[in-house]
C-alpha cells in the first residue's frame, strides 16, 4: 500500500499504539470511498496529488467506488493521488501562482 510506504501506517502506530494498525486500516477503508478529484463551480479542478497525462474527466466521474486494491494498479488514479512535486538537485522546485 502506497501510503504505508510513505509513513502513514507508522504514524498511526506511533499515535495510537496497539490500535494503530486498526486505525490505519479504517482510514484506508474510508479513503477508498472518497472521490479522486472534484470540479468546483464548473471551473476549478481539485485533486490530491497532481495531474496525469491520462486526464479524462468522464473517466474520473465513472470511477467505481470503493476503489479496490492499491491505486498503483490504476495509473490515472495513482497519478492523481501521488504526483506530488519532488525536489531534485538538478531541477529545484519553484512554486508559482496558478494562471
Number of strands: 2
Kindly name the structural category: mainly alpha
What would you call the shape? elongated
From the alpha carbons, calculate the radius of gyration and give it in angstroms: 16 Å
Oligomeric organization of the protein chains? single chain
Pattern of helices and strands: HHHEEHH
Largest sheet: 2 strands, antiparallel
Average pLDDT, rounded to a whole number, is 82
- N-C termini distance: 35 Å
Helix content: 25-40%
Residue ranges: pLDDT <50 for 5 or more in a row? none
Q: How much of the residues is beta strand, in percent?
A: 5-15%
Spatial ordering of strands, largest sheet: 1-2
What does this structure look like?
With 99 residues, the protein is mainly α. Helix 2 packs across helix 3. Helices cover 39% and strands 8% of the residues. It has a two-stranded antiparallel ribbon with strand order 1-2. Strand 1 and strand 2 form a beta hairpin.
List the defining traits of the structure above.
99 residues; two-stranded antiparallel ribbon; mainly alpha; single chain; 5 helices; 39% helix
Would you kindly provide a brief summary of this structure?
This protein is mostly helical and 99 residues long.
Chart the SSEs and their pairings.
Elements: H1 2-5, H2 8-16, H3 20-31, E1 37-40, E2 44-47, H4 57-62, H5 75-82
Antiparallel strand pairs: 1-2
Amino acid at each position: 500500500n502506497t501510503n504505508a510506504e510513505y509513513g502513514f501506517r507508522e504514524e498511526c502506530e506511533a499515535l495510537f499504539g496497539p490500535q494503530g494498525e486498526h486505525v490505519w486500516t479504517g482510514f484506508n477503508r474510508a479513503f477508498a470511498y472518497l472521490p479522486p478529484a472534484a470540479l468546483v463551480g464548473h471551473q476549478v479542478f481539485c485533486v490530491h496529488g497532481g495531474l496525469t497525462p491520462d486526464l479524462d474527466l468522464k473517466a474520473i466521474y465513472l470511477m467505481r467506488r470503493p476503489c479496490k486494491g492499491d491505486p498503483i494498479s490504476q495509473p490515472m488514479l495513482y497519478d492523481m493521488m501521488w504526483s506530488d512535486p519532488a525536489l531534485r538537485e538538478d531541477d529545484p522546485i519553484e512554486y508559482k501562482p496558478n494562471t
